[in-house]
Records
---
Amino acid sequence: MNLNKLILKWYDKNKRDLPWRKTKNPYNIWVSEIILQQTRMEQGIYYYNRFISKFPNLESLATSEEKDVLLLWQGLGYYSRARNLHHTAKYIYYDLDSKFPKSYDELINLKGIGDYTASAISSICFEKKHPVLDGNVFRIISRIFGIKDPIDLNNSRKVFKKKAIELLPNSRYGDYNQGLMDFGSMVCKPKNPSCSNCFISKKCVAYKNQLVDSLPIKAKKNKIKTLYFEYLAVNNNNKILIERVEDGIWKNLYQFPVNISTSKKNKTEIRKIFIDKFNLETLDFKLINSEYIEHKLTHIIIKSNFWFTNEKIDIDEGVFTTILEDYPMSKLMHKFIEKYRSKLAYSEVKMVN
Ligand code: SF4
């Protein structure tokens, strides 16, 4: 039996019961695919259900404020996904008259939709013949065919894409693509794959040659850099100053004013930085946390300190607020506020999870 038929047969018996599989509505499939990028399934289901109950359709998302979308996205990370979802929802609703594009070529031109998502939406919702190619599929193809081309090099992508196209069945493209994703998550897992119970083991080059643990191959080692974030929590008449982030991964979220550097600074240096940066005269800054609060991103470790002052400062794009929960914030900000809220000398601080 062909590989694609085996995958479809397995999928029919073993497919996961996921909330977005109850529909072929492209809006729901699109939201689920964007949420699932870089997200564990359990967390993805939780966020998907929350998102769909707040924004059940394209219109509700397109006519919402970006701040409300970011608030709902809090804790999920990679906030550009939320900004792009909102941007593209507006575009489809206002510019395309709510007509959701059906073809791969139209979909891939939308902001925030790449090869993987365009293939997933066009195949699952509209039965278009496009293979999905994500980490699962790279791994499965690499192992079954014993392909040693590093999966993180552009040239290799063509090799895997060609193979993925060859493997497509003649119908049920959406089911086949979802079957591959489930197979990669449930059987051919990154670690400890279930080879002894795998229906493909007899055809699998990696299994037959004891290469399962060494495939797929990656060429580059991720370089991790460390950044030092020195936040300044300003309490002015029982209101806390927060600023809107102008750029970067946390764009349009809110945070305490911050100084970012690539090297560790001592307390005297940090006080001087605050005085210069915020045009202050005081030396009255207290360090709140006893040791760095760490936050890990894919390529960055953030070591953060939180300082406190009652000094009056004013900054562009800043607001003094008594209700922090109305403003979307990063997980790092949440971590700090949850642990040290009493030290902000501000009893009303409440945060949503
Ligand atoms: S035998 Fe193992 S490595 Fe090969 S496809 Fe099955 S689970 Fe993956």
---
Amino acid sequence: MRLHAIPHSTNVARVALALGLKGIALEATVQHDPADRAAVQQLSGQPLVPVLETDDGRVLTDSMAIVAWIDATWAQPHPLYPADAAARREVEGFVTFFDHVWKVAPNAIEAEQARAAPDRDRIAAWAAQLRGWQHGFDALLHGRPYLFGDAPGAADVCAHPFLRFATSSDPEDDDLFHGVLLEHLALRPGEHPRLTAWIDRMAELPRA
Ligand SMILES: N[C@@H](CCC(=O)N[C@@H](CS)C(=O)NCC(=O)O)C(=O)O
């Protein structure tokens, strides 16, 4: 399998983490120039990464759809989604929240900051929303090491590549969206200790 990527991509990191947890190796990770998506567009019909070329000739797009495919293809011994239907729906609900609600705020902040005269009040409101949600992630980690249980699963794979910016930065990463995450997720010492410990725990897991 070949994974198409751009440097420092959060959504690509989800796929690398899912494969790592499954113990599945890639033939190659193909790094593209963020400013030139022609090859990705030609391969997949859209410009965004990740794109996964599978061994049986599929071309898959959209990180969490790829993670669901990986989980369905190599279900055992480390399932990423629960087998129980209700528990699975809870995790799917988290993934939907993360991608379609949580991500709105940092994307909106990035877009507002790019305007000639950014509206500081709007940025502050989105930033407050992001900080408020950190309580929720910390609460999900009460009495368990991962967001929905005792083993890392799809929710952890979904959230960690983004929430990790609360505690760490990469000096070579100059992505503006990641700058927004660094600024607005940063945790003060002692704040949300369960979330901080989970970020460290997740960082230790294997990646493809
Ligand atoms: N919903 C897509 C989003 C993919 C996405 O936004 N990928 C970013 C990299 S993390 C990208 O290719 N951005 C290119 C751009 O915005 O020009 C997914 O989850 O895979």
